[in-house]
Amino acid sequence: MCSKGKMQSPINIDPSTLLYDPNLSPVHVDKSTVASEIINIGQMPRVRIINSARWPSVNVSGGPLNPYRYRMQRMDIHFPRGALFGSEHSIDSKKFPMEIQMIAFNSDLYRNFSSAVASPHGIAALSLLVQIGKKTNEELLKMTIATSSIRFKRKRVELLDLKPWKMLPHKADYVTYEGSMTSPGCHETVTWIIINHPIFITREDLDSWSQLQQTITEEAEPRYIGPNFRTLQDPHGRIVRTNIRHRFKENDAECKKRLSDTWYRSNPNRTEAYPKRKMIHRRRHHSKPPIKDELL
After folding, report:
1. Is residue 68 among the annotated active site residues?
2. How far apart are CA 98 and CA 21, in angstroms?
3. Which of 20, 68, 70, 110 is catalytic?
4. pLDDT tens-digit readout, 78-127
5. Which of 59, 68, 66, 71 is nearest to 24 (CA)?
6. Whole-structure pTM value
7. How many alpha carbons fall within 13 Å on the CB side of residue 94?
8. CATH number of this structure's domain 12-209, picked from the four choices 1.10.357.10, 1.10.150.390, 3.10.200.10, 3.40.1190.10
């Protein structure tokens, strides 16, 4: 499936081909504090959510997931080493320093993750793209501090007060497409939701992740986990939908803008084009400038 599938992930999100879908509602993530543990599995660090009677589950619903509820199972973390491009997905062919993937299974249709991952409508994946900033997201900081305890494979440490919902930006913009898991066996049962606002990590904290190693103990020539992203896959004509609607006057043809005229606002490689476009749009519509932490 990994080499022959036609719905593999990750993919490049091409803003010029996005399809606006007015029926896409906001995505909801339960505001629950969970017990979890972060584990070095060799290929990546993974946060496992402990779903038990003692601790509340985190349900994900809304948007392209309707009418089902999905129970958060884990978070997979992708990052670089010695560079600033470690995300799996890219936007307009540009990568980001880090990507956190919240993986949930359809608890309305299936009893557990193992059943869901191989079945239709089985998995939801919320992708958070991470950009360099002056302050690390509070929940991401908890995970970053824990990396010092999981330097080697099979090491794990508890995180008993993690709040996954606090990692999500307040705004509800996103893009979505049907794809696959990005690790073997690459099951094509995943509804991907890529949030349209980054969260932030300092450069120093990002470097902490790059110290994680694939081996059980120290070796003479260390084998580091990063970079641990899968290569981009062919979209094979898949539709990528969005709930991002651009506002303009219906009779103003000059300012009707396709989604290709927007971009991941945190991407430093695209800022040169920003001032001119911003000033033209403000002059014609007297609107406020775009929020700088928008991604599309």
Report:
1. no
2. 28
3. 110
4. 999 988 999 999 999 999 999 999 999 999 999 999 999 999 999 999 99
5. 66
6. 0.86
7. 18
8. 3.10.200.10
